[in-house]
Amino acid sequence: MKIAVLPGDGIGTEIVAEAIKVLKVLDLPFELEEAKVGGAAYEAYGHPLPEATLKLAQDADAVLFGAVGDWKYDKLERSLRPEQAILGLRKHLGLFANFRPAICYPELTHASSLKPELVAGLDILIIRELTGDIYFGQPRGRRVAVDGHFPGAEEAFDTMRYSRPEIERIAHVAFQAARKRSKRVTSVDKANVLETFQFWKDVVTEVHAQYPDVELDHMYVDNAAMQLVKAPKKFDVVVTGNMFGDILSDEAAMLTGSIGMLPSASLNSANKGLYEPSHGSAPDIAGKGVANPLATILSAAMMLKFSLQQADAADRIESAVSAVLAAGLRTPDIWSEGTQKVGTREMGDAVVAAIVGSTASTTTKTITKS
Ligand code: NAD
Fold it and tell me: In sequence order, what E strands does the chain have?
């Protein structure tokens, strides 16, 4: 098994280093190969997703990704900005299904911005369509308006679109995921205003006919945003489009205490996946050694489960994360009175220690590519 490791920028390098430490002590037969992506790749090769990085990701069995981006690249033309790397990987690898579980660990109920009783026991799964919608729709650009409120004025535009097969395949993913959970799916749309999302709702309803054992309800995105903070435990599996999923999954992250706790998996139809924390490169805390590595470590666990058929090893990681939280260790983002504040490395070390005690076995072969 070969894992492509793409740490990226900002805290990406710090948190991926901790996830690799954890993977190595599991003593599994895989090879890790690292490459630059995002701003780091732009600095080295003049492009955020160099061909060699893309090829490594294409050839690997799974991709472990950190985060990309930094404010200093904001003035670059769009195609050279670090964030284009993640969009390019999603597109080239066909990663259309994004899984973002939002689980509130019992020890972190007080770290959430919501009242503990609203989030205690929270376990929801947001499934976001990842390769369509307004993020990829063409045409897009800037032009002089020929109609609208200000004809003759400069304007910008994007295109929201979804085809039937795109909606069908993500709906199947959601219904199948729900079968392994509490058999409830909420499809989030904006069918009252947008043609694209009336179509989304119609197609999801049609696909649902093949899953009579799963309950389906539909919710407008504005209501879903409200319900997520009002009564988040009402949800189980939430399926939605690319843009709504982007926003709602960040909102759900805060329910769990910190965006630093939220892993994600993005899969293609062959179950090949890219695994990354749900957060970005956090330039505000990069290099300070305070970033929470648990979202990345939990993403590595998802990788073992979904793409590498190592469910037992994934369980070991998840249990170790629960154990360090139960022991009171907290990075600053989840720290509260009475718990022990630790940095990125100490948190990674604690997870490693919880997996194997103090002895770490490192038979994994690591190749480092510049
Ligand atoms: P962000 O997720 O990087 O940070 C938002 C806030 O959460 C910041 O206050 C940050 O300090 C905090 N935070 C994030 N991860 C944390 C962690 N592991 N531990 C503790 N605190 C954490 O979002 P942003 O500030 O809007 O974006 C920063 C950069 O990241 C931008 O360039 C953006 O484009 C990029 N970005 C990249 C990805 C990706 O690589 N997939 C995703 C989102 C944003």
Answer: 2-8, 31-34, 62-67, 97-103, 123-129, 141-144, 154-157, 184-189, 215-220, 237-240, 263-267, 273-277, 329-330, 340-341, 365-368
